[in-house]
Structure formats: C-alpha cells, structure tokens
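Q: How would the structure tokens look for this protein?
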Amino acid sequence: MKEELFKSLSPGLQDAYIQYCLPDDLSKLTINSVILSEENREKVNAFLVETEYKDKFIRYGLEPVNRILNYGASGTGKTFLTKCLAAHFGYELLSLDINSAISTGAAAHAIESIFKLGNYLGKCIIFLDECDVIARDRTDKSIPVKPETREAINGIFQLLDRMSPDCIFVAATNLYDELDPAFVRRFNVKLKFDRPVIDELDDVINKFVHPAFTINKDMEPEIKDIILEYARNYTGLSYDEIETWVERAEKQAIIRGSEIIEESEIYKFFMESLRIKVLTNEDDNSLYLYQIS
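A: Here is the predicted structure in token form.
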C-alpha cells in the first residue's frame, strides 16, 4: 500500500516522503502500550472519541480537535504516544528534525514541505519534536531570535490555519515554560508527562516485561526498601530507562536459556543508575548504602 502511495506522489512530494515519513513498524502498538497518568488517559480517550466523530462535527461548523502538545521530561512517553496514535488511526507519521533544519538554515522550507505533504496525503500525523527550538517565548529579550527562527514559527502559525482537518499536528517539548504563549494557544489538547513514581515502580516494570517472561521476586525486601527510599530523591528516572533495564534482564535470561527474569538483576541496573551499592556492616550485620564515586 505504501509503495502505491509513494508512486502517486509528485517527485517533490516523493522527496519529502522519504525525508519525513518514519519507517518504523507501528503495527503492534496500541494506545494501551503507553503509560499515561489518569488525567492524560482521560484526555487521550476524549481525543479518540472526538476524532471518530470529526466529520460530523465539521458538518455542523465545529472545528476538529487535532492539535496536541506533549510536554515533560525526556523519556516519559511523549514521542511514544505519538507513534501509538498513528498506529491507532492507521495514519502516516511524518516527523521533522527541527534541529537539523535550523542548522542548515532551511527550517521554514522544511516546515512548509512537511505540511504540504501532510495536506496532500490526509490522514496523517505531523510531528514536531523539540518544538521549543523555534517556539521560544519571543517576549523574552534575553533569548535572541534569529530571522530564520522567526520565519519558521510564523510559517507554522499560517500552515496550522490551513492544515487539512484530516491531519493531526503533534508537538513535543521538555521546556514548556519557555514556549511562546501564542504557540501554546494553538493547541486544543495539552498533555503533561511526568517521571515515573517510585511507589509504582513494580507496576511500571511489569508493563515492559515481554509476555513470554515471568519475574522471579528474588529481591530481599529490606534491600529493596532501602533502594526505593534512596531513589525518592533521584530526578533522572524515566520510562525509557526502566524499559532498558527490563530488556537487559530479559537478554540475561535468554543467555541462561530461561524465560525467568531475576528481579535482582533489574534492581542491579537501577543501582548502577543511582550509583549506589547496598553493603552489609560486618560489625552488626546491618545494611547500608555505599555511594559509588
């Protein structure tokens, strides 16, 4: 199907398709694959329903809800949700590397090209990651705005006004507080992505375990409690990092010829991230933390 679609494009749009259409296989992704807060889950479910009735809304002169702003720390699911939305709707996913476009001085042209392709294709998601690169607050005089950056953000405003109602625009940022308020107002769905909560760590770990594997709860409760209590002040935890620990533990199980993951291995990787060890005091046999330099 994609091959037929590609052949139907003009040479210019073919170049844009090659550059912006993500080749990832999204077929196994679902909305339930994403770890969402209760608030975000409600917003996403409402968005799915509105999109289902979009054509009927338009007939009554109601604007479709088709602009989503994902914001929060790195590795918390902003890009992953975008991929899952594309999979859910069966849409093409067009993604622009805005940093690369800025560095070559072609940001405005790149933005125009991706919107032109999206409007031609219809039923696609146009994804702008790290949107703060061009959408910083222009009233903040401490941050100089280059002419090409100003041209790019003005172009986005115009292109959003002309975007096909069959398209969805998604932007993502780690720097929500630094965004231009005029840019933020363009979005009718805003989703804040938070870091994992330590008290929910086991649930998150289970979310990432492949169905073929089971977890052997071999961690000593006292050691586990010490690690988790220390980790409450750890600001670097992300869903990406937890998924990496689980994948590493699964690989270790496969090497052993097993489909049983040792919980202690996952926590070993966690302690590596925290740069700690749990040691035993030889005098009274009590446990204590040792910070790795």
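Residues 239-255 form the longest helix (17 residues).

Residues 2-193 form a domain with the Rossmann fold fold (CATH 3.40.50.300).

Upvote if useful.
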